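PT: before anyone asks, these are the final sequences, not the draft ones from last week. 813 residues across everything. Please model them as a single complex and drop the result in this thread when it's through.
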Amino acid sequence: KTPLKQPATSNSALTEIQPDGQPLTTPTKPKEGLPAEPWTPTSNLKMLISAASPEIRSREQRRQLLNDPSEEHLLGEEYEKSHPSRKEKSLGLLCHKFLARYPDYPSSTDNSYISLDEVAEELKVERRRIYDIVNVLESLHMVSRLAKNRYAWHGRHNLPKTLQALKKVGENNKYTQQIQLIKRREYEHEFDLDGDRKEGMPKSIASKDSEMSFVELPGMEFRAASVNSRKDKSLRVMSQKFVMLFLVSTPQIVSLDVAAKILIGEEQLEDLDKSKFKTKIRRLYDIANVLSSLQLIKKVHLTEERGRKPAFEWIGPDVLPNTQDTKLETSSTTCSQAISEYIPPKEQCSKNLFPSRGKQSFTRHPSLIKLVKTIENDRRKIQSAPTSPVKRSASTDQNLSAFPSEMAQDPAIAKHQLEGQSKKEKENKMKLSRPASKSHLPLPEVAPKPEPLGSTAPCQLAALTQTLGVCAPGHTSVSPVILPHPHPGVSYAIYLQPSQAHSVVLQPLPCANVTGIKSVNSKVLNPITTEEGDNQIATDDPTKSVTAKERPPTTSETSPQRCLKRSQALEEISSIKRRRRDAESLDTHLTFFPSGYLIPLTQCSHGSKAGFSDKEKAEVCPAQHTAYSSPITGVIPVTGSELKAVNIPAFHITPLNIMLSPTSIAAAPVLGNSSLNSSNTSSPQIPASSVLNFTLQHIGLIPAGVQVPANPFLQHMPASSQAENVTYSSEKMSVQEEKVRKNRLHLADNFLSCPQPPVPKEAQEPQTVTENFFRTPGGPNTEPPLSAKSDGTAGTSPGTLYIPQRKLEVSED
DNA sequence: CATTCCCGCCACCGG
DNA sequence: CCGGTGGCGGGAATG
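LR: through. Structure below.
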């Protein structure tokens, strides 16, 4: 109804102009015109949000009619025309607005109370919608019900505890297993089209968890006391369960359908009541939207066989496994967070984003907006692309550090800066910040689809792998890069599905920059992936193959791991079995990934996002997506790393001449400790110099590109280089830069994520190692290197390693 | 057509 | 019994 209305347009224009006025005037009721709400503090925020919000951004490509061939900036934005747009009424946006009203970390002094109808009125939405938001917030103990129409706002203060509690409960519920089971089941279905299959264990692990009711926090319950109603039903509980799923699963990614199945509680096989399932999904979307607004999760797409399926990735703070003292909790939560806590609550969001600039002006700054939009769009594209290849400009970070001036060019960078200035976490609210946050991981991730393996053994391998950072070898001149291991949640493996593989690889990236790389990768990978993947995967268990090869038996089946396995398996198989042409391709492939440094990444759970934030900034959001999308890339690196770690004989490796870098060495010990001891010693001698470079670069003392000499390893990669050249061609800036960039990209791409197994305690060791390693250069502990996280990224240069922010943080602590 | 998810009916329940 | 809550699912908007 009234899709386009002139009047509306006018209104909108006005609205836009108004600094605060809600950009969205009530569509339904034209009468009120623009209510000038007293949004003082938040108004700016809103604007920002609206501007930044992905939804709005593309918004229908805005009138094509109008054209605005060039610029746009404000103009483009201004006439949105679409008032009634559904997106503008989305729960996510509404939630943003809601959140903007309250400080993330309200000081005890300010008592913020929430009056539902008041809020509803102000936000101009039906009360019903507010309930949706409040209910999930309540599930996180960010608010508590005081009385009838009244809630108390606690902000994120309780978040750490709540998450911890939820995680604990989730573990008790054996959600991990349930997830596994469901995935396996799915997998089976897929594979055995016919269904049937004897099914090893159709019934789930009885988790009679049944409905656990609402998880309360120690300090909180009494609050609600009198008016509190028990028996909370769905949304609240559902929300908690949903969060639990993220907290317990290793790649902290949960697909909607899996979540729905688990939440339905029914595991009983397939009685998937279709309608029930649908309803559940609907609810999950509601919850997810709110959680997304809270920056706790973000939407991703798992590329799976048959297309992609919606899923969400946890991007919230890591929850420490062990509770220990309260103090710990608080502090542990990431330094940045802690810091943020103390930050003035008030301005939080938007303002912080652009501190240096006038906030308002900044907000409106056309270029900024544009950037945001662009980013968003890119991100979107990437995401949307079914099998989008990787793209992401790894270069971003480097550039930043190296050449600040260049920032302008890279949107990501710009963002980065912005964020950097402000406290990162805080601004999360803004959509702007969002993109940045996403990107934090430099490594591409692999989406895992655990199903295949069904097997059993828990995989420590994965853990190992994860633990170690895998380094993708740079190409040619590039110095070795170290990838920080993303933490558990961060990365995941992509499924390599046979079918997908092709597509993925082949498809060009939306992003120009990356494209080149991608294509290269694709070339190499394709052959293998495609064929092998299909055959292999379909046919046998990757695990088996792996094992045969020399893999440590223990591989587990975590989803990510599986991926790895698969990929590895593929590779191996291909190499061995399919020597024929495949072998060739393989070689190429191998070539492609010459050496890598393994760094032990600790999986420190503690890493806080804040740490990431830096990285995030550096990496544009798209990157992540990219990562996901490009399974291939990820696979390769992983393999290499794993191999090393495992001591796999690597014939594969051999050709490459992979050497163990210092990193690897460091890693070795870690590995041993962590779980499999397989190799440790195997590492060959590593040139000390490389290490130094590493460190130095890392620290930022040396420009990444510079360190060249050290890496002997990189030198070989004939095929790959060729590919690169070919693909890449096109224009280049300075050769060097380009190269670097490429490398980076490569690296990034390559870095696959290693899946992280849930290995709580062991992490410490690795961490320690890592820290020491890094510190060495710097000096005594202190965190000279990246010191502030902000620079970590910057410091990094092409060849440089990425240091995981977490580490830094950890070390700092 | 598939995915996302808004809208709002209407059952429930606390007061 | 009333009005606040919030389950629930149709079906519209989007992809």
